[in-house]
Each structure stands twice: as structure tokens, then as C-alpha cells.
Amino acid sequence: MKPAKSTADTLKKAPRLEDFLCFAIYSANLAYGRAYKPILHELGLTYTQYITIVALWEHDSQTVGGLGEKLFLESNTLTPILKKLEQLGYLRRARDPNDERQVTVSLTEAGRRLREKALPLNLVKESGLAPEEFAKMQKGIVALRDNLIKAAQKQRG
What we know:
It holds the Pfam family Staph_reg_Sar_Rot. By secondary structure, the protein is mainly alpha-helical. It has helices at 7-13, 21-43, 47-58, 64-71, 75-87, 109-118, 124-127, 131-156, and strands at residues 62-63, 91-96, 99-107.
């Protein structure tokens, strides 16, 4: 008969926090936030406001719903961000005249000019990775995210 494993033996084999990929990504996200903070402070933006502007630089005049999907944000999270950016003069929101249920978000001239000030915000150098390593890691994380989204959708049925 095998001796029962002690609690100490079980704890030794239990994964440690540093072994969790999800924690590595979470804590890297926090580190990114800290690295971006001084730069974004100069622009008067939060990180979420900044990525909202970036999404509009890529494709101006989007619906709130489409923008939320792109940013992985629910409407109740995105709406206050859009209101603040509108107050800052970086975007405007308007009901679609063809479908009053839809709200379209567009950059103002000030929102477009903000891009020139924000161009150095990529932190490739600060990451300590070579540009090709940085690009490879970014693609890997996107693939991981997309696979996890698919898995969650399958679980929901």
C-alpha cells in the first residue's frame, strides 16, 4: 500500500504563480500600463482612450458597436470613454441618419493631429526585444487571444 501524499508534497507540485501564462500576460499588461503612463499623461489620455483613438486613426467613422468589438469593450465601458474624448475635442458622436439606433464615432481635426504627438508610443525599444522578436511575440499573443476566444465561444455552445 502506497503512503498517502502529504500536503507538503502536493504543494510542491502545485503550479506556482510565475508558472501561469495568464499571470505573465496580466502582469506584462500592468507593466505596459506603467511604461505608457508618463507618455500618455503628456497627451492627457488614459491607455483605453489612447487605443480608442488609434482604432479611429486606422478606420475613421465607425459605429460604437463596431469600435467596441475591435477594442474588446462592452458598450457600457466604451460609452464613458467616448464621452470623455468628445469633451476633450478629439471625436464626435452622431446618430446615423439612415438608422437612428446606430451611433457613429468620427475623429475631429484635433483627434487626427494627436497622431503626430503619439507616434513614438510603441515601446519596442523599451521591451528589450529586437524588432523582429517583438513582432513575433505580438503575433503569438494575438493567436493565443483568438484561440481562447474561440474556445470560450465553443464552451458557451
